[in-house]
Structure formats: structure tokens, C-alpha cells
Amino acid sequence: MHWRNTMLRTLFATILCCSGCLSTIIPDHAPATTDDATVELMLAQRQFEGAGFARVNRAPFASDLEDGRVVTMYVSADAAAAYKGVTPDTDGSAGPAFPVGGMVVRTSSDPSGKLLELTFMVKHEPGYFPEVGDFAFGVTDAAGTPQNGDDGAPLWGKVADCATCHETRAASGFLFGVAAAHR
Questions:
Q1: Is 125's pLDDT higher than 50?
Q2: How many Cβ atoms from other residues are within 10 Å of residue 36's Cβ?
Q3: Which residue from 58, 108, 127, 182 has the fewest beta carbons nearer than 10 Å?
Q4: Number of domains making up the chain
Q5: For residue 12, is it within any domain?
Q6: pLDDT, averaged across the chain
């Protein structure tokens, strides 16, 4: 009986000890997906603000794209190391390759913090959009509803306006990253 109690206590202690360590062995991560419906649902439910994503700036910072707006950047956990290896002020990447299914979400808010828009990038399989590293791009309203451009075309997928800027960042994995001052 004593032997069995000792074994049970050892097993219980091992489970308690390891349960706190599992996140370092098997980290929470966003499901790698390039499926439009899944991406749209994830944005609508703001899952990028929870487990499976890393916020890569310490506080909202002024947008380079929209006057009077501030942005916050989130990256799926599986792609965070690759994204953190890139900065907008240098050309090149110090991190690993950005994985297929990896995602970047950029929130755009007014100075009071009211969310106005979401933009995203998600890495697809090779051959999807090679001019910009096979990334799909998208723009949604605050509720995650895909938006249309001035020409009425959906701002989702192979978006030329996004590609024009990102193609200049080939040496950085087609990413801009976050400036060191905002990390």
C-alpha cells in the first residue's frame, strides 16, 4: 500500500510540475490557416488579442499610413520570432523565415483608442502571390467586415495597394516590423 501511495504522489507531483511547463514545450499558437472564412471569423471575434498571438509593441504608436491614427501590432505565435527580427529602419531580417499560415494583424484606432479598422497579412503556400512573398492582405472595419476599395474591389487577397509598399521590403521578408522605439 505504501508503495502505491508513493507512486500516486510522485505521479501527481509530476503532473503539477509539468502542467506549468507545458506552455514552454508546446506553446499556445494560432491555428496556421490561409482559409479566408477562418481568417474573417478570427478577425471578427478579435482572437488576435488573446492566446495564440503576441502583441509586438508596448503601446499604440502613430500610424505612418493614416494621419491622426494610432496602431497596435499583433503577430501569430508561430510567426512572432520571424516578425520580431524585422525593423522598418533596416533592410534585412535577423529572424527565421515567416511560416505559412503566419499572420500579422494591425489595429488602427483614433487617438482616444476607438478601433476604426483592421488590416492583416497572412502567409500562403509558395506560388500564391510571389511578388510579395506569397502574402494575402486584407482590410476590414472594426467589426471584421471586409471592406472595398475606392474602385469597389474587395480589399482582400492579392491587394495591389498593399503589394506596392510591401514589394519594396523583399530583403526583410516583405515585412516592415515595428521600430525599436515602439517595442
A1: yes
A2: 14
A3: 127
A4: 1
A5: no
A6: 85
Among 96, 72, 70, smallest CA distance to 84 is for 96
Q: Is residue 141 part of a domain?
A: yes
The pLDDT tens digits of the residues spanning 65-88 come to: 999 999 999 999 999 999 999 999
DSSP state of 166: H
Determine, yes or no, domain membership for 22.
no
Whole-model pTM: value is 0.81
The strand ranges marked E within 3-86 are 53-55, 61-62, 70-76
Q: Using an 8 Å Cβ cutoff, are 133 and 123 in contact? A: yes
Residue 65 sits in a domain whose CATH number is: 3.50.70
pLDDT of residue 24: 34
Q: Judge whether 105 lies within some domain.
A: yes
Range of the domain at 110: 28-182
Query: How many other CB atoms sit within 10 Å of the CB of residue 154?
Result: 12
